[in-house]
Amino acid sequence: MAPAKLKILLAAPRGFCAGVDRAILVVEKALAKFGAPVYVRHEIVHNTHVVETLRAQGAVFVDELDEVPQGRPVVFSAHGVPKSVPENAEARGLLYVDATCPLVSKVHVEAERHHRQGLQIILIGHANHPEVVGTMGQLPDGAMILVQSAADAETVQPTDPDNIAYVTQTTLSVDDTAEIVGVLRRRFPKIAAPRKEDICYATTNRQAAVKAIAARCDAMLVVGSPSSSNSSRLVEVAQRSGCTKAALIEDAAMIDWGMILPGSTLGVTAGASAPEMLVQEVIAALRARFDVTVEETTVTAETVKFSLPRVLSA
Questions:
Q1: Which segments of the chain have a pLDDT < 50?
Q2: Number of CB atoms found within 10 A of residue 154's CB
Q3: What is the CA radius of gyration of the chain?
Q4: Catalytic residue list contains 131
Q5: Is the peptide bond before 194 cis (omega within 30 degrees of 0)?
Q6: Pick the catalytic residue: 131, 197, 236, 296?
Q7: Would you state the pLDDT for residue 314?
């Protein structure tokens, strides 16, 4: 008996962004230059498979700098770190390599600029996410207020409502953020905005690609780790855009076969920290059960590349 048909709508862009590519390469180059072990403060990017691959090559992942032995290099993750972290590394004489995504660094620079201008800053983001911790850690306590939702935006009370600005986490839902910004602008008409959108191009593009296919899909699989903010947002975007059966999976082993019906159309995408290899393994697992046709829908081409830190390119 012939296998049932399954149509896959493959979203593009998907998977690795330039910041993730750069962060992984930073660890690999550091291992090549300094030898193992190279220490990494926190997960270099939020993907279990990436972390395990680098661990096998000699990377050691730690929570804090006091776990890094004297004389060994340490890499800071793509999400960015509070200013106190490089200061502590310098105080200990540690060689550190900063793999912070340049688009996160842009938000840090914006926040500092607003602070110098005497503005209190509202940061739109998710509490305890490493990027938010790093961004809030660029400025003294009290200089930044975290707003997580439109409800928060309705009640937040800045010290001086006429002297505020906002910045955002780079991996948020574009639509949720627009709603929050709308509330802030209504309540605080003088609020200063970023010169350029803070939500990064990769997050925006991956959400747009999901929106482009969601209404045509009976179900959707988003490849990514649960700790990945941008991957979780893709599930939410799919559900809001017409595909209520959307699920986040780390790899092919996590596929819930009960949600994929014979003769249906399945959307497949991946968060910005998920390797393309995992997407192809998911498609291979689907081919093993169904007569699969794949249609790729591309909303834009990405050409962004970031250079490596000088300490590695020297």
A1: none
A2: 13
A3: 21
A4: yes
A5: no
A6: 131
A7: 65
